[in-house]
Amino acid sequence: MLAVMLDGRPRTRAELGVLTGLGRGSVGSKVEALLGSGLLAPVGAAVSTGGRPPVQFRFDPGSRVVIAADLGASHGVVALTDLEGSTIDSFSAEISIADGPDEVLGWVSARADELLERHGRRDDLVGVGVGVPGPVEHSSGRPVRPPIMPGWDGFDIPARLSSEFHVPVLVDNDVNLMALGEHAAAHPQIDDLLFVKVATGIGAGIITHGRLHRGAKGSAGDLGHVASRHGGGVQCRCGNIDCLEAVAAGPALAARLRAKGIQVERTVDILHLVEAGSMEAAAELREAGRIIGEALATCVSLLNPSVIVLGGLLTRAGDHLIAGVREVVYTRSLPLATGSLQILPAETGRDAAIVGAAVMVTEHSLGVRKAAATAS
Q1: DSSP assignment letter at 85
Q2: Which residues, in sequence order, are bridge partners of residue 241?
Q3: Per-residue confidence band for 349, with pLDDT thresholds at 50, 70 and 90
Q4: Residue 291: strand, helix, or coil
């Protein structure tokens, strides 16, 4: 019943009986239990067909809260959200993931404490969700040999945070959480979606049959470390040669622009150059899109998604990168796979991983996933 109500639509007891197949008494007892927990709330009466109008009920996402943390290579966000991932309040700061788990998770704990105290919601906390910029064994919440996270390999993040907050702590790769967030917030009706983040690194999150696909060890979607034919022998930070990330991510573009005499140090500087009208930066972005498009054309043949969503810092610099991706994918993939394929910019923007972390925790804590879109 709760799974049916997660879509937020108000329903009567009679409608819930039809949707769930439960008898009147069973529906009544379950509704009362959910009302008692605060997860359902009455929202007024439906149109009467005679007699007293029946009362409607709706899922109340504000009845509980989640701490969601999005940790990147050089930034961190800690948010207090409701059960749907809407942010109530948040902190963000420039941090370095390379400072190690003690310092970074100490910052997460301190900010989470402040948020819970500020809003008086400590007793309503159901879980903590954390996204990190590296491979994660989701079942244990431990990073697995993350290339840009020295000192984090095998670190027990859930144990560190649950000892303070005494709730379940779930950890995943940040791009997986972005895929979850974008799917839940912008494309809930889509069963097969590929989310691609292009920033300092490149990664993908895979939604198939409406569920996040993590793979056997949590490394599904590691798009940045597939081989590219455009590298010319460049070494990737993972140790391999000519990885897609080493050729088409932010640092690679910045290096090529510096070689042309253009002053650029960080990935965000490329965004500023494009905004200032730099044709060279725009051309590099479009070419990066073409290179990424070659890898995505293979993904389209393998996964046959309905939607490819492009997010991350480099997608905020106009349509240059996305145009390059579209150019190659629509040219190289078979018409059967691309006939209805949409390649779109992310709608959730910087909040994607926060929304995804909250969705992950909500589904785990409530023990249900939103029912299929046909349940209405």
Answers
A1: -
A2: 235
A3: confident
A4: helix
CATH class assigned to 63-179+352-366? alpha beta
Architecture of domain 2-59: Orthogonal Bundle (1.10)
The structural architecture, per CATH, of the domain 188-346 is 2-Layer Sandwich (3.30)
The closest alpha carbon to 286, from 244, 307, 315, 243, belongs to: 315
Cα–Cα distance measured from residue 173 to residue 186, given in angstroms and rounded to the nearest whole number: 20
- C-alpha–C-alpha distance, residues 252 and 242, integer Å: 11
pLDDT of residue 376: 38
Helix axes 250-259, 267-275, angle to 10 degrees: 60
Decide if pLDDT at 86 tops 60: yes
Number of residues assigned to the chain: 376
**How many whole angstroms separate alpha carbon 314 and alpha carbon 199?**
5
What integer pLDDT is reported at residue 50 of this predicted model?
Answer: 55
pLDDT bin (cut points 50, 70, 90) of residue 352 is very high
Question: Percent of the chain having pLDDT more than 90?
Answer: 82
- Is 70 exceeded by the pLDDT of residue 133? yes
> Residue 79's closest CA among 39, 40, 37, 121?
121
Helices (H), 6-147: 13-20, 24-37, 101-119
pTM for the predicted model, two decimal places:
0.90
Asked if 195 and 178 touch (Cβ cutoff 8 Å), the reply is yes
| Rounded to 5°, angle at Cα 65 from 59 and 69 | 130
